């Protein structure tokens, strides 16, 4: 008991150090050069692609640092993710780390983001420039949403990836919640294959509603390939409820732990 009591402050100090290092990366990396690169990306012939590739390297750096400062976390990511092209990636959602991890491994990708994020200085500009879609079609976001969605099919045909979290919010329990019909409609209106992945333990490393990472506890962070649905399959274009049930079953299926 005494050892546990003395260990608790050390764990909190370690978690605080990891948290400050991880989130401090964003400011330091931006000031150290990424800020200038983002500014230059707007002058490229294809600025959207340039912004997406910069996001990719920005978040790769973040996870490289996180692996260094939190070595008790083991990472097992499905090789199918790196092979994703011209498809819609669908995942469960456990942590703010989830979209960052996808961007770190998908050089060319876009997603639907909370509308309020587009109002943030600099960050909102990066989201718009990278072609991300606001989740709201009301007020000031109506035109932006239509503009971003207009070229989606062409974007996917040229090798881009759209990733979505069809639950719409992070799960605090880890269980897969109800899937939003709007996300599923967008996914199949794209006409692209649906590739399903499952996150495990990102919500334990960085839980919803907490500032501190829980980096002192050893665990395996997994992103597992759960299945693929081609446009020609009946469930793809059938009743939306059947597609939702099928996807929910894939997302809820437990991933096999590594040996």
Number of domain units: 1
Distance between the termini: 32 Å
The fold-level CATH name is Glycerol-3-phosphate (1)-acyltransferase
CATH class: Alpha Beta
Tell me what you see in this structure:
With 259 residues, the protein is of the alpha/beta class. The chain has one domain: Glycerol-3-phosphate (1)-acyltransferase (3-Layer(aba) Sandwich). Helices cover 48% and strands 15% of the residues. It has a 7-stranded mixed β-sheet, sandwiched between helices. Helix 4 links the parallel strand 3 and strand 4. The N terminus is likely disordered.
Question: What is the topology?
Answer:
Blueprint: H1 2-41, H2 47-69, E1 73-77, E2 87-91, H3 97-105, E3 109-113, H4 123-129, E4 133-134, H5 141-150, H6 152-157, E5 161-164, H7 181-189, E6 194-200, H8 202-205, E7 219-229, H9 234-237, H10 240-252
Can you describe this structure in just a few lines?
The chain has ten helices and seven strands. The protein is an alpha/beta fold and 259 residues long.
Key descriptive features of the protein:
10 helices, seven-stranded mixed sheet, single chain, Glycerol-3-phosphate (1)-acyltransferase, globular, disordered N terminus, membrane, transmembrane helix, 7 strands, 259 residues, 15% strand, acyltransferase, transferase, alpha/beta, transmembrane
């Amino acid at each position: 008991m005494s050892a546990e009591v003395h260990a608790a402050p050390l764990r909190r100090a370690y978690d605080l150090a990891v948290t400050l290092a991880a989130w401090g990366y964003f400011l330091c990396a931006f000031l150290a050069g990424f800020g200038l690169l983002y500014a230059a990306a707007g002058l490229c012939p294809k600025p959207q692609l340039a912004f997406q590739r910069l996001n990719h390297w920005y978040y790769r750096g973040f996870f490289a640092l996180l692996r260094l400062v939190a070595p008790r976390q083991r990472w097992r990511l499905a090789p199918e993710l790196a092979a994703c092209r011209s498809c819609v990636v669908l995942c469960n959602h456990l942590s703010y780390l989830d979209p960052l991890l996808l961007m770190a491994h998908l050089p060319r990708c876009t997603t639907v983001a909370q509308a309020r994020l587009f109002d943030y200085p600099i960050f909102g500009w990066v989201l718009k420039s990278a072609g991300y879609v606001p989740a709201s079609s009301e007020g000031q976001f109506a035109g932006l949403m239509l503009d971003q969605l207009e070229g989606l099919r062409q974007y996917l045909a040229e090798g881009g990836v759209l990733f979505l979290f069809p639950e719409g919010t992070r799960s605090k329990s880890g269980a897969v919640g109800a899937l939003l019909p709007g996300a599923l409609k967008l996914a199949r209106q794209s006409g692209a294959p649906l590739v399903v992945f499952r996150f495990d333990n990102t919500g334990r490393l960085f839980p919803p509603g907490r500032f501190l990472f829980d980096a002192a506890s050893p665990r395996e962070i997994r992103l597992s390939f759960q299945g693929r649905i081609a446009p020609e399959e009946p469930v793809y274009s059938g009743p939306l409820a059947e597609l939702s049930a099928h996807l929910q079953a894939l997302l809820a299926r437990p991933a096999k732990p590594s040996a």
